[in-house]
Amino acid sequence: MADNQELEAFFGLSPKVQFCRSCVISNQRPSSTVEFKHSKSDQKKTIGFGDDGICDACRYHQVKAQGIDWKHREDQLVATLDKFRRNDGSYDMVVPGSGGKDSAYTSHVLKYRYGMNPLTVTWAPHLYTDIGWQNFTNWIHEGGHDNLLFTPNGRLHRLLTKLAFENLLHPFQPFIVGQRIIGPSIALKYGVQLVMYGENQAEYGNDPNENYKPTMDRKFFSAQDPLEMMLGGVSIGNIIKDYDYKLNDFAPYIPPTAESLEEAGVEVHYLGFYLPWDPQECYYYAVEHTGFQANPERTPGTYSKYSSIDDKIDMFHYFTTLIKFGIGRATYDAAQEVRNGKITRQEAVHLVRKYDQEFPSRYYPEFLEYIGLTDAQFWETVDSFRSPHLWKKSGNGWELRETVS
To answer: How far apart are CA 8 and CA 244, in angstroms?
Structure first.
């Protein structure tokens, strides 16, 4: 633990860096994956730690292992599915996903184990990787699913990604917004009342209270003036004013209201509430049943080959979390593998120290071209988001003040 109270901490983060005694996550991890504001002084909720130094995510995994009757949870799942099951040939649920290991597992289990007729829907990646496109097509053809691939206005999406990078250092924000709302939005359009996502991010450190209910919090769908909705740290109204767009162009990013979902009877559930969720087991299942393939080489910034590999921009999302919170991709991967008993904490520490700060150079030129920045502009933006309590100058570069040990 470091005592950096004299150093400024951006985003309202704790000036004292603390690492979980059970896994390798730190108390700097945000408890939300979507950021709508852009000030470095904004207060950000982070993962909780108990007096024993154990993080909320590890604490919940202890509950999963010892305190949940999974047979009862599965009975609840069957009852929920039966409530929405249709026998007239129409879709009885929407399953959002990319064809990655998690959505492949979710959709295949629901269709072939529990007899549902899902419509899978995909919010397209920014830039497909070769393996990502291959896994997507395998998901549909070998996995046996109907699918709607939704690709938002490319020119607008690039602009929103650039704004999100410059204002939030969060180039994935517009994608996350679309990914979150595509399921309920398509359900409304098709008259389907059940949407099933895979795991709840509370599994990994978001608000732990969300782990104890099967449905998505409808606060995300709270009514608001679309012109005041923030995308990339800028209101839609200001984007319309400053760029050549109309409000209708933003329709894919504007979530349905909670009232419209309630009126239509649409419910958004997480399969991970009903069945024990293990990313590695999802991977093995997807390989066997949907033709999912891992990358032939590991992903830069981590040691894994099969997680979040469909988008060339994905690795820059994790690089920016390293810059803002001191938490890179290897930390996220290793923390959940410790919780699931795949590796020891000692092994996780070694992997984090070896890979976490590796720069994702593989698709760097394409990323710069996509968001329209030069190398110098990229690093100027990145360095402006380095919180003094996390980073210090070292020679011609930067180094973290505290790393897991």
So the answer is: 38
Residue 341 CA: distances (Å) to CA of 7, 98, 296, 306, 335: 36, 26, 24, 18, 10
Lookup: tokens for 390: 């996390």
Reported as half-sphere exposure (CB side, CA atoms, 13 A), residue 120 has a value of 28
Locus of tokens 């109270």: 5
The continuous run of DSSP H or E covering 234 comes out as strand 234-235
pLDDT in tens, the chain (405 residues): 445 558 999 999 999 999 999 999 999 999 875 554 445 555 568 999 999 999 999 999 999 999 899 999 999 999 999 999 999 999 999 999 999 999 999 999 999 999 999 999 999 999 999 999 999 999 999 999 999 999 999 999 999 999 999 999 999 999 999 999 999 999 999 999 999 999 988 888 888 888 889 998 777 777 679 999 999 999 999 999 999 999 999 999 999 999 999 999 999 999 999 999 999 999 999 999 999 999 999 999 999 999 889 999 999 999 999 999 999 999 999 999 999 999 999 999 999 999 999 999 999 999 999 999 999 999 999 999 999 999 999 988 999 999 999
This prediction has a pTM of 0.93
Q: DSSP for 88-148?
A: SSS--EEEE--SSHHHHHHHHIIIIIS---EEEEEE--SSB-HHHHHHHHHHHHTTT-EEE
Handedness of CA 235, 155, 379, 354 (dihedral sign): positive
